[in-house]
Specification:
Elements (H helix, E strand, L loop, with lengths): L3 H5 L2 H9 L5 H8 L7 H21 L11 H8 L6 H23 L8 H5 L5 H10 E3 L2 E2 L5 H26 L1 H4 L8 E3 L2 E7 L8 E6 L5 E6 H34 L1 H27 L5 E3 L4 E6 L12 E5 L5 E5 L6 H16 L11 E3 L3 E5 L10 H17 L4 E5 L8 H17 L3 E6 L2 H9 L3 E9 L4 E8 L7 H7 L4 H10 L2 H86 L7 H23 L23 E4 L4 E5 L8 E6 L2 E6 L3 E4 L1 H9 L6 H9 L3 E3 L5 H18 L3 E5 L6 H12 L3 E6 L9 E6 L1
Parallel strand pairs: 7-11, 10-14, 10-15, 12-13, 13-14, 22-23
Antiparallel strand pairs: 1-2, 3-4, 4-6, 5-6, 8-9, 15-16, 17-18, 17-21, 18-19, 19-20, 23-25, 24-25
Helix pairs in contact: 2-3, 3-12, 4-12, 5-11, 6-8, 6-12, 8-11, 9-11, 15-16, 19-20, 23-24
Length: about 800
Amino acid sequence: MQNRHHLALELDKVLERLCDYASCDDARAMIRELRPETSLELARSLMNQTRDAHMLLARFGGPSFGGLKNVSNALHRADAGSVLTMKELLDIAAVLRIIRALSQWRESNSGVESVLDAFFGALSPNKFLEDAIGSAIISEEEMADNASPELYALRRKIRVQESKIREQLEKMTRSQAYSKYLQDNIITIRNGRYVVPVKSEYRGEIPGLIHDASSSGATVFIEPMAVVSANNEIKVLESAERDEIERILAELSATAGNFCESIKTSYECAVELNIIFAKAHLAYSMKASVPEMNDEGVIEFRQARHPLIDGKKVVAVDIRLGGEFSTLVITGPNTGGKTVSIKTLGLLTLMAMCGLMLPVNDQSRVSVFGEVLADIGDEQSIEQSLSTFSSHMTNIIDIISRANEKSLVLIDELGAGTDPVEGAALAMAVLEELMRHGAKVAATTHYAELKAYALQTRGVENGSCEFDVKTLRPTYRLLIGVPGRSNAFAISERLGMSADIVNRARELVADTNIRFEDVVDRLEMSRLNMEKERENAEELSRRADEAVEEARRVRQEAMAARDAEIEKAKVQAVKITEQAKREAHALIMELDRIKKDRDKMKDSAELARRAKATIKGGIESIESASDPIVSTYGEDEEYTLPRPLEVGDSVLIAQIGKEAKVLSLPDKNRNVEVMAGSAKMRVKEEQLRLLDKKQKNSETGKKRTVSGVESRLNLAAQTRLDLRGMTVDDCLIELDRFIDQSLRTGLSEFTIVHGKGTGALKNAVTQYMRKSPYVKTHRLGVFGEGEDGVTIVELK
């Protein structure tokens, strides 16, 4: 039997909407039997299930439950030894297919934990039985040939016999001797046996058995004696076929019976999952959220929408109860939204206790109650009869007898239907009794006395449904803390009633009522002003928050850019330091080698020259590594030579910041041969900057910019290695050091000067290049490069 209080709040209609999202009959039946949980733990567990289903639905889409049906009866009969029909076995296979699909769906998104894993884990897919049924049975009326080897052989024999019979009968229909006796040259079947249609007057001309006659009697259907034996053989084979089909069905039924309990358990879990995901689908349709649940009687709905009102028309309301006050008295005009407000309060509470997400905004709260008791009628007429009043009083008496501190009581039009004075007094007494029982109460009324009662009584709060006098329409907004106004005089004036009549009516109203209405008017004006000020403050606060957020973002970007530059400078400093250390180490090694060769060399002048050159070159390398420079002319800066270049001019190579001497004038490709230190190279004319003596001194004194890229270009200018005068061992050591330095500085090509002489150095260099893993190509020089006295090397 359905709970009349739940019916009054229309919980049954919400459950019917939930049924629309269920896929099987058992799930829909269980949904209609849903009852609100009075335990906080159980209600919260149901809500968590819906929450996780909602989350999985959003991230992965929902699983399919289509085709799920109850096969418990068939499984019990199979377990008891009965033979199931093909349809029943196909239904079991369909259930197994859905169970397997559900299990696979969860496995595909197993990276996300969920409280629903207990249900998914209880599913027991049975691919063996599913495939056995699917491969054996084609439809509800047909068994597959390959269901068993015996069935395949029997059906093959039947087809052979049928082919023989047809062949014999076709010969007869084509025969001149028999065709004249036939009504038509066709072969047909009567009573499962092959026959031919014979004219009635010639029935004695064709020996055989008559199986049927036409309705007119002009045709008889005769089975010729020549095929009687073959037809009999087919009958025997068909009987054997039926026996084999029965055996296969019995075998499949026995197998299904063996898995009876596991299939039933999996089916029950699938039904539970279907209900939970139906709740999630309903939550999506209502744009619902998960409220905070408690059992302390505290309700706070933010922007609550009644789930049965069209989403485009429903007005969201904020409702509070059970915190600062335990009783809410809502007043206001008819059709203003009072009844909808308390219905929303009660219905959403029941939905939460059923594990349904609520159409409210985030951070809403709802309580679990032992009972939700409601007296809500649809009678909104002024002319209410005594029977209506008696009915309401009967309900209220029952509610008072059942109410306690775990009850939520909702009463519509409390005290209506009788004398206003007595009705108001009775309403206040009922509210006091319910408060004494500890219940949470929300009631609607028209009585002005209850407004004053709410203002004067602790734990009781006024509420009202807003009404726009200018448009003569309710806004349906619930205002808590503000008593409702009757608006009768204002509405009458707006409708065109004479001002004299309205003024006279005001005179007839008691002074206390007038003063009370004036207080309510002032409260209403204050509320409207405060709402406007609050909206302005919220707008200013929003703009301030946006400005702060923008400032924070700009500051973070600036700090990130600063940190990136600092990190870049640190990395560059480390590179420069390491390069300077390497150059200093190389200089020390070179000096040590010269010191060792001091006793071997007879020419002291040559020794001094080499030492001086080595020290100078080493110091220059250290200075270049520790203080890399760039040209004062940027690569992107436009520059035009003040005059054509001449041989012997001093120029600056802008790309690498090196001074050089012009050796030849530009060729047709505008390439100029220059000498930079000891390196001869060809450079594009636009990369050269002409220097005179003043400018040269000026350029030398200018502050230059540090850059790791230009530093590597400066080091890359050392593209020539002179090995002349060295032993083979020293040559290989120096060559190894130079290649190492070139790889660090990014130099990809250089020239080795080994001279012609005896060819020992040239051969040693060639052998080294062939074995080195860092050398891409190497070749002897050509005319203009040094011919056989040099080797040109390209690194990988």
